[in-house]
Amino acid sequence: MWSPGIYHPDQVFKSKEDQIGQLRRFLDNGAMISFVELSNETIQVVLPRTTQRRHSHLSTELIGKCNHFIHKQGCSKKFNDRPLECQALIPQGGECGFSDEWSRERDLVLPWKEYEQVIAEFEEEHWQNARAMA
Ligand code: SF4
Fold this sequence. Notes:
- Helices cover about 30% and strands about 20% of the residues.
- It is built from five helices and six strands.
């Protein structure tokens, strides 16, 4: 089953200024917030939207076909703009895999903990706007 790669927070946040605005602009460009369950906690992360969630900023589903995938051509994003998890894939033995040094939890998921508050404030603003438009 397909799951788009997860971005590293450094790919989303370029400075300490207006981090909610930076997150909003990043999500407006085809990304969404979802979450990863670790053994003792749940961490919210940012990844490309899936084709089923093409218009959603938030999703409870991490699984789905990446909206940046173009049939036959592969990924529509330049290598440096792809999620870090996608960049870390190495073609080997007829398929792509990760090096033995790579730790998804340590290198990618746990760094998102620092941004819990930013994501919570974005979500609050998002739902307030949704209620106002209802
Ligand atoms: S490599 Fe590109 S198409 Fe594949 S999951 Fe990553 S962003 Fe999506």
